[in-house]
Design a protein that fits this description.
Structural class: mainly beta
Distance between the termini: 40 Å
Number of helices: 0
Largest sheet: 7 strands, mixed
Helix content: under 10%
C-alpha cells in the first residue's frame, strides 16, 4: 500500500521561502516518477514539478522554473519542494503524487497515488 504524506506548508509573505516534504512508503519507488501538483480554490489541479526517483532527472512547469527546486533523498524515502521567491499566485493546496512511468507528467489523471495535501498561503 503506497502512502504519501506531505508536510511543511504554511503562511509566508511574498518573496519568502518554504520547503515542502513528502514522506513515501509502501513500495520500492525505483523507476517511479514522483511529483508535486497544486490546486487553488476554484481551479483545476495543476502540475508543478516531477523527479525520477532513480535518475534524479527533473521537470518543471514554466511558471516555477528558477524559483522551485524538486529533490529527493532515497535513503529517507522523502521528496522535497524548495520554494523561493513565492508569489501570492502560488497560494494553493500542494499535493505529492507518484506514478510508474515518466510519460504524460502534466496530467493529474495519469498519476495513481496521492497524498492528502498541504496548504501554502502567500500573502501580498
Amino acid at each position: 500500500q503506497v502512502r504519501l504524506v506531505e508536510s511543511g506548508g504554511g503562511l509566508v509573505q511574498a518573496g519568502g521561502s518554504l520547503t515542502l516534504s513528502c514522506a513515501a512508503s509502501g513500495r520500492t519507488f525505483s523507476g517511479y516518477a514522483m511529483g508535486w501538483f497544486r490546486q487553488a480554490p476554484g481551479k483545476d489541479r495543476e502540475f508543478v514539478a516531477a523527479i525520477n526517483w532513480s535518475s534524479g532527472n527533473t521537470y518543471y512547469e514554466d511558471s516555477v522554473k528558477g524559483r522551485f527546486t524538486i529533490s529527493r533523498d532515497n535513503a529517507e524515502m522523502t521528496m522535497y519542494l524548495q520554494m523561493n521567491s513565492l508569489k501570492p499566485e502560488d497560494t494553493a493546496v500542494y499535493y505529492c503524487a507518484s506514478r510508474g512511468s515518466w510519460n504524460g507528467l502534466g496530467d493529474p489523471l495519469n498519476w495513481g497515488y496521492w497524498g492528502q495535501g498541504t496548504q501554502v498561503t502567500v500573502s501580498s
